[in-house]
Amino acid sequence: MIIVTRRGVTEAEIDHIRERIEGQGLRTHVSRGETRVVIGCIGDEARLQHLPLGTLPGVEAVHPVMKPYKLAAMQFAAEPTRIPFGSIEIGGPGIVVVAGPCSVENMEVMKETADFVSSKGARGLRGGAFKPRTSPYSFQGLGKEGLEILSEVRRHSGLPVVTEVMDTRQVELVAEYADALQVGARNMQNFPLLTEVGRTHRPVLLKRGMSATVKDLLLAAEYVMSQGNMNVMVCERGIRTFETATRNTFDLAAIPILKKETHLPVIADPSHGAGRRDLVHALAYAAVAAGADGLLVEVHPDPETAWSDGEQTLDFQEFESLMEGLRPFAAATGREMA
Amino acid sequence: MIIVTRRGVTEAEIDHIRERIEGQGLRTHVSRGETRVVIGCIGDEARLQHLPLGTLPGVEAVHPVMKPYKLAAMQFAAEPTRIPFGSIEIGGPGIVVVAGPCSVENMEVMKETADFVSSKGARGLRGGAFKPRTSPYSFQGLGKEGLEILSEVRRHSGLPVVTEVMDTRQVELVAEYADALQVGARNMQNFPLLTEVGRTHRPVLLKRGMSATVKDLLLAAEYVMSQGNMNVMVCERGIRTFETATRNTFDLAAIPILKKETHLPVIADPSHGAGRRDLVHALAYAAVAAGADGLLVEVHPDPETAWSDGEQTLDFQEFESLMEGLRPFAAATGREMA
Amino acid sequence: MIIVTRRGVTEAEIDHIRERIEGQGLRTHVSRGETRVVIGCIGDEARLQHLPLGTLPGVEAVHPVMKPYKLAAMQFAAEPTRIPFGSIEIGGPGIVVVAGPCSVENMEVMKETADFVSSKGARGLRGGAFKPRTSPYSFQGLGKEGLEILSEVRRHSGLPVVTEVMDTRQVELVAEYADALQVGARNMQNFPLLTEVGRTHRPVLLKRGMSATVKDLLLAAEYVMSQGNMNVMVCERGIRTFETATRNTFDLAAIPILKKETHLPVIADPSHGAGRRDLVHALAYAAVAAGADGLLVEVHPDPETAWSDGEQTLDFQEFESLMEGLRPFAAATGREMA
Amino acid sequence: MIIVTRRGVTEAEIDHIRERIEGQGLRTHVSRGETRVVIGCIGDEARLQHLPLGTLPGVEAVHPVMKPYKLAAMQFAAEPTRIPFGSIEIGGPGIVVVAGPCSVENMEVMKETADFVSSKGARGLRGGAFKPRTSPYSFQGLGKEGLEILSEVRRHSGLPVVTEVMDTRQVELVAEYADALQVGARNMQNFPLLTEVGRTHRPVLLKRGMSATVKDLLLAAEYVMSQGNMNVMVCERGIRTFETATRNTFDLAAIPILKKETHLPVIADPSHGAGRRDLVHALAYAAVAAGADGLLVEVHPDPETAWSDGEQTLDFQEFESLMEGLRPFAAATGREMA
Predict the structure, then answer these.
(1) Do residues B237 and B218 share a domain?
(2) One domain for residues C164 and C45
């Protein structure tokens, strides 16, 4: 922590600031410039976290020196984390596509979709049994029945399954059925939920919140990891900005930043990023070009009749062309489709 | 719902769009302009909610006609909702101040704070027993012990208590101790939590999410109300923008908009809105000038030693001057401090 | 400037960083913590401005210590700047209301409006002769004819006039006619224009850009002042965010921040801040409660027929109620309406 | 234009709304739903532009039907516009890279850079002679001397030159020297400047403003085009959001949206989009994957000593690797590097 004082700070104020810091077991180092005094803190910065240093008399600015996340930081791991997902790994050289409808609707649609996406190269299946909907009057998901359908379709297709969990009370149940647990954008800072999924042995797909910075996202991952579950994938899916041409603003730069900051796999969700079916291809290609380890894509046999998110869902033909289109981009990054 | 078609839309496309809408039991009305055809939907718009109308061939834009919330809408109630809170009401002519530390730390601080703020005109006590913290390594609250302290301090001071609940599993517990349940900004779209607090008989203080629109906030209130709990207060506490001079951007205009859109009481939180102790007075005065029914203010006997949010917490002297300062602003709006 | 190095920085990298800084005539001060080395720069920070310090090998973060503006900073002036505007002053104890239509349309409307707003307490007249319009097909203002109307109406009503200038080539012309030159939000970083108005002897009303921080706004004021024109008023008029219920998000907190950071008068524009006529009262009251020195309000005898911005323009009756409503708020802040 | 009325609208209000619209020469069409009345406007919507329809009694919402830009719209042109730039074309099958330093510093640096980037495949040279700087105390560019250097380096290298123009008074001068005129992000809504560059015969590179929507950007292009200059290239360079890990948030989705909405070439600026040298490769690859027609890249022989923007400027080695890296991405989109 570095503390910059105000012009005209008094010696008494400086002493008071130093006492506060030293009271937490750190040492201080005072540097006197031409107009300002700067106080450096030497020792474990985490101990200063709850001190309102910015509010002490004479303080103008406080700059942290250390990253607030540890387990999620690149330095923590000798090499990129590879996460087992069914029979494959996410975070290795292969780029993994996980596809499926927004909501689990019924056995037939799920089987048809699983068969199709699998035949075109998808390596995992997505589908929501518990759905976070903005309106209480919208379809909220099939719940446990949806989980059973997912489980049966996994048996049928061999595809591992990722599905969202929204409630601490459901974590155990969902973890029984799913190969990976999705924490959605709206729950990225639902800390009890992060803690609970951190206590399972299932990989976690953590989506970035609509107003979360990259740092916030990694702190959310840290919550999960601090409980012992190191298998976290972080997912860029768009942030909220003033632009209305897209449902969210896909923050492409988050992908290479995350690849630099963390050893965890980085997934992109071009469906939510765009919110428009006609942009999914371009965003998916770009995400791969920028270094994503995987993609989460919404696909439905007939998007017009999908129970949710139909506006951003690809039909089979579009998904096929997406998978064909992705290959040369994967190759251009020196990787291949898993 | 009004559907605007693309230039050059075909009759077959128009028929297809109409079939989709009529298939949901609505009637359609086609209006042909010079370059566009517009299709109006007559009937219960809610039935169209899950249809991806925007993605049908030939569609350019879709405009909803009805508000997506009903119970929270101004039209639903004959007059503004007044919510019982201890011995007072929120939403009546009096402007209510609820004050207290960010976190419940111990009995002594809570009693001292309650006594002081009560003597200066606060009509309720705030304090977090369960704390949503960005970092897993920060203090997470005293939990049940915190609730017991709050309960004892209520007995001692007579002030009703509002405290946050973050986990569906804790709702029953917190509802036993608290006079009102706070749902924090990070949980504004934690739908299972909204549903669960909607099943209690406790008033709910619902804070606006950092990236939530006013419409999203009212839909979140609708979640609570749809479970039968009509006692919801909505709270403006700042949104996330590019400006870094403040922790959040206090969206003052949300206050008069909410007063027009809903019959629910509107609370402002100038402490989080500013994130800086030196701005709390100005934001509080402005919130009252703009029509807020109440204020939520962070106060601590010694903010420098507060366990959380010290940067934005007033000390006793500052709180006293705030309460004195508020009175003429309340009067200027034709109201008074409760 | 304080430079924080990366974990594992080498001595050679530290030497290289120091050489760069010392090459600009500053001294350096190296502080070694447990995991990082921090390099402080002692001397005139402005000389480092163009050095890409963040990109030097071994650097993790760079924190400026000094504010980038000088003339606009609070410290520069012994007391708040008062700006002469016609026969009154802006920035003194009285709160000044400047009112009028968005565009100058014709002599009749301007005279009628000037007479009315003057009778109700406005102390200045606004009206655009040159209009920045999003579309090239919208009305662009009457130009020089508009200036002549403004000039005649000033003679007639005694009200000083503020009007926008958009083009460096028009500055001299507009300065001949107007009592104050408005630089609009879209031109807040039109640096040649800022420079040019800085060379006139007319007060400048500088509106905050839609994506400008408070710091950016003060740097724009600094541009004007660096040319010798110290009579700058800064104006909060809303920023662009994700919220669509209002045209802009009125950043109320900017008002008290500006009052702390600068000696320049702070004006609020509730008409643009809201973009909706039904919110203008609430925003105006709040702006005064938060410390604004003046208000800029759009008024028209018949907003329905106004040539621009009718949606956010008050009619005479609304303006009258606004002026009456403002008085007690001004009093509550210990001031009065000018 | 479609007007949705409030619940409980009166017949007198409906008549009044219709009169306003019909007074502009349009016809109206009234459609009565179960709870609302909808009024459609038939005829030239542009005539309604200045009417504050949203403010008429009884009106709840107003939805435009037509795009506000015409010349820039996809429908206006039979095929994508190709813009001559030196001996090449922008907007054809080849993807064009324009590279060079942020500022023109001196002849030597420009020649060295031009020679190098040309040898690696750049097809144009960038460099600022007039620099828009946030602070009045920063280097403002060499002005006319910079233009002369650019002109000489063009002769020397054969590379066409793009350079920024900031002031209406300089347009003629800059147009004499440059092959294309850049309008920077801060001037995207400097309407007199847009008008003035629209009167030249030079191609215009129009950068998106930091708070401009895609629609705003196309309206700015429309300003230029409405003066007769159809050779406009639109450039995505990042928007302002809450994320601080990057200088701007690169809105990747704007690229495919622009490719759908307009016939104009779409350029990406990964240097400003990222603001960090270590992200430029990823953003450039992604931009090409998403369909960009060209890239604008900052390159300098020694970024550490660049007079501006050094943090985001590539050195020669990095530029070489970028150009090599781009080829397979161009091929993956079915195109090639120009």
Answers:
(1) yes
(2) no
Pick from C11, C93, C29, C98: nearest CA to C319: C98
Give the one of B214, B243, B328 whose C-beta lies nearest to C251's C-beta: B243
Say what angle helices D214-225 and D191-198 make with each other, to 10 degrees: 50
Render pLDDT for B263-280 as a digit per residue (tens, 0 to 9): 999 999 999 999 999 999
pLDDT at D172 over 80: yes
Give the nearest chain A residue to C60 (CA atoms): A65
Whether residue A79 sits in one domain with residue A40: no
Distances (CA, A) of B184 to A295, B165, B232, C215: 31, 8, 13, 30
CA separation for the pair A238, A256 (Å, rounded): 15
- Cα(B104)–Cα(B283) distance, integer angstroms: 24
For D189, the domain range is: 74-337
Residue A69: inside a domain: no
- Give the DSSP H or E segment for B219: helix B214-225
D59-63 mean pLDDT = 88
| CA pair distance C300, C104, nearest whole angstrom | 10
Q: Is the pLDDT of residue A226 over 80?
A: yes
Residue A59 · residue A53 · CB < 8 Å: yes
Q: Please give the tally of structural domains in chain C.
A: 2
Q: Which span out of B310-314, C16-20, D259-263 was modeled with the highest average pLDDT?
A: D259-263
Do A185 and A322 fall within a single domain? yes
Domain identity same for A90 and A40: no
Count of helix runs (H) and strand runs (E) in chain A: 10, 15
* Nearby residues of C324 by Cβ (< 8 Å), 6 or more positions away: none
Which CATH number goes with the domain that contains C270? 3.20.20.70
Residue-wise pLDDT for D88-100, tens only, equals: 999 999 999 999 9
Long-range contacts of D317-324 (CB under 8 A, 24+ apart): D318/D277, D318/D280, D318/D281, D319/D99, D319/D116, D319/D117, D319/D120, D320/D120, D321/D281, D322/D280, D322/D281, D322/D284, D322/D297, D323/D97, D323/D120, D323/D121, D323/D122
Question: Which phi and psi angles does A197 have, rounded to 5°?
Answer: -70, -25
Strand positions, DSSP E, A158-285: 161-164, 180-183, 204-207, 232-236, 266-268
Contact (Cβ atoms closer than 8 angstroms) between residue D289 and residue A289: yes
Euclidean distance between the first and the last CA atom of chain A, given in angstroms as a whole number: 43
**pLDDT tens digits along B133-157:** 888 988 889 999 999 999 999 999 9
How distant is the Cα of A4 from the closest Cα of chain C, in angstroms?
Answer: 7
Instruction: Compute CA distances D159 → C44, C193, D86, D96, D336, whole Å.
Output: 40, 32, 7, 12, 19
Assess whether pLDDT exceeds 90 at residue A214: yes
Q: What is the CATH number of the domain that holds A44?
A: 3.30.70.1140
- Tokens representing B133 are 């913290």
Q: Is A68 a domain residue?
A: no
* C to D CB pairs, distance under 8 Å: 131
Chain A residues with CB inside 8 Å of B211's CB?
Answer: 209-211, 239-240
Percentage helix, strand, coil, to 5, in chain C?
Answer: 40, 20, 40
| Residues D314, D277 contacting (CB under 8 angstroms) | yes
What are the Cα distances from residue C103, in Å, to C128, D3, D50, D150? 4, 25, 11, 42
Q: Check residue D161 and give its pLDDT.
A: 98
Across chain A, what does the average pLDDT equal? 94
A166, B190: Cβ pair inside 8 Å? yes
Q: Do A263 and A192 share a structural domain? A: yes
CA angle, residues D121, D126, D127, in degrees to nearest 5: 140
**Do A75 and C7 count as a contact with CB atoms less than 8 A apart?**
yes
Q: What ipTM was reported for this prediction?
A: 0.94
Residues 6+ apart with CB under 8 A from A271: A280, A296, A297, A298, A309, A312, A313, A314
User: Quick check: B2 and D38 CB within 8 A?
Assistant: yes
